[in-house]
Design a protein that fits this description.
The chain has 9 helices and 6 strands, in the order H-H-H-H-H-H-H-H-H-E-E-E-E-E-E. With about 350 residues, it is of the alpha+beta class. Strands 1-6-2-3-4-5 form a 6-stranded antiparallel β-sheet.
Length: about 350
C-alpha cells in the first residue's frame, strides 16, 4: 500500500473524530358554506375527557417507541466511534511498523551490496576449511530466513493496514447512518410530545386533575384484572444478590423526572432507569427496552423475582423493574416522575432476567 495514501486516510479518520422541502401544492379556495348548514352543525363535536386521555396515552406511547429507536441509534453510534478510534490507532501503528520493517530490509540490502552481493556467510562457503564451510552454510540459511521473515511480516502488515482502512471506512458509513436515525427519531419524539402537551394545555385546571384521575383509574382497572387472574398466585421468590442491588438503586431514583434519552443521575427514561440499575448491580444490560426484550433471557411470569424486568406493549417500548408484591418501579413518560406502579397496570409483553 502507498504509505502516503495510508497516512492521509489515518489523518482524515482521526480528524473526523473531533467533529462528532416538500413541494407546495396549490388548492382551490373552499366553497362558502351552504346557507342551509349552520355554524353549529359544521363544528366538530368536543371530545370527551376519556378520549383525550386515550389520545394523549397513544402519543406518549409512540414517543416511547421513538425514544427506543433514538437510544439504540445512539448506542450504535458510540460503538462505531470507538471502533473508528481503535482502527485509526491501528493504522498509525501499522505505518510505524512498516517503516521499521522497510528500514530492516534496506539495511540487509545495503549489507549485501557492501559484500559484493553475497551475505557474510557466503564468503565462508568459499573457504577450503570444512568447518568454515559448514559455518558459512548455516549463516546463509539464517540470513535467508531473516530476509524472508522481514518480507513476510512486511507483506502481512501492509495487508492488515489495507483491511484497517477499509474497516474504518465501513464504520464511518455506519456512524453516519446511525446519526441520521437519531435525527429522525428525535423529530418523531418531539412531535409526539408536543402534540400530547398541546392537548393537555387546552384543558382547564379541573380537567387536568380529572385527567390524572382517569389515568390512575385506568391503571387500577388493569392491575385489578391482572391480580384477579391469579398471576401472583405462585410468585413468591426472593431476589438474587445482584437483583437486590438493582432494586435498591431503582428505589433511590423515585421522584426523579422522566426525560427521554436520559440515563441519570438526575433524570431517566424507562430503559435508562433499568439499564443503570443493573449496571449499579454489576450486570451491564442493553440500553433499550426492545434490546432488553430481544437479548435477555425470558422468564415466565409465575417465576418472576424482584429485579426482573417486565416489558410492556406489543412493540416492547416500555420497561419497568419488578420489586415484588405485584409492583414495579418505572419511569412512566414525559411530565411524570420515577414512581411505583402496579406490575399489571399496562399491557405485559413478557419478563426478562438480567442475571440468569
Amino acid at each position: 500500500m502507498n504509505r502516503r495514501h495510508c497516512a492521509a486516510a489515518a489523518i482524515t479518520l482521526v480528524c473526523a473524530l473531533t467533529v462528532l422541502a416538500a413541494p407546495v401544492q396549490a388548492f382551490a379556495a373552499p366553497a362558502p358554506p351552504s346557507p342551509s348548514v349552520t355554524q353549529h352543525e359544521t363544528k366538530a363535536p368536543k371530545k370527551s375527557l376519556e378520549e383525550v386521555r386515550e389520545e394523549i396515552e397513544t402519543l406518549y406511547r409512540k414517543a416511547g417507541a421513538a425514544t427506543d429507536a433514538y437510544n439504540l441509534a445512539e448506542e450504535q453510534a458510540k460503538k462505531q466511534s470507538g471502533e473508528i478510534v481503535r482502527l485509526a490507532r491501528a493504522i498509525v501503528e501499522g505505518q510505524s511498523k512498516i517503516a521499521e520493517l522497510r528500514a530492516q530490509a534496506g539495511a540487509q540490502a545495503r549489507e549485501q551490496y557492501r559484500t559484493g552481493g553475497l551475505p557474510p556467510g557466503a564468503q565462508l562457503m568459499l573457504s577450503d576449511d570444512p568447518q568454515l564451510f559448514l559455518d558459512g552454510m548455516g549463516r546463509v540459511r539464517e540470513g535467508q530466513q531473516a530476509v524472508q521473515s522481514v518480507l513476510g511480516e512486511l507483506t502481512r502488515t501492509q495487508q492488515d493496514l489495507e483491511t484497517y482502512t477499509q474497516d474504518a471506512g465501513t464504520n464511518w458509513e455506519k456512524l453516519e447512518a446511525n446519526r441520521l436515525k437519531q435525527a429522525d427519531a428525535k423529530k418523531k419524539i418531539n412531535a409526539q410530545i408536543a402534540a400530547a402537551k398541546k392537548l393537555e394545555s387546552k384543558l382547564k385546571k379541573e380537567e387536568r386533575a380529572r385527567l390524572l384521575k382517569l389515568e390512575q383509574e385506568a391503571e387500577y382497572k388493569l392491575q385489578t384484572a391482572w391480580l384477579s387472574s391469579g398471576a401472583l398466585k405462585d410468585i413468591n421468590r426472593e431476589a438474587s444478590a445482584s437483583g437486590k442491588k438493582a432494586v435498591a438503586f431503582a428505589t433511590e431514583q423515585i421522584g426523579k423526572p422522566y426525560v427521554w434519552g436520559a440515563e441519570g443521575p438526575g433524570s431517566y427514561d424507562c430503559s435508562g432507569l433499568t439499564s443503570q440499575a443493573w449496571a449499579a448491580a454489576g450486570r451491564p444490560i442493553p440500553r433499550t427496552s426492545q434490546e432488553q426484550w430481544r437479548l435477555l433471557p425470558h422468564i415466565a411470569i409465575k417465576d418472576m423475582r424482584p429485579g426482573d424486568l417486565i416489558i410492556y406493549h406489543g412493540d416492547a417500548s416500555h420497561v419497568g423493574m419488578y420489586i415484588g408484591d405485584g409492583a414495579i418501579i418505572h419511569a412512566p413518560r414525559p411530565g411524570r416522575n420515577v414512581t411505583l406502579a402496579g406490575a399489571g397496570s399496562m399491557q405485559i409483553l413478557g419478563v426478562v432476567r438480567p442475571d440468569k
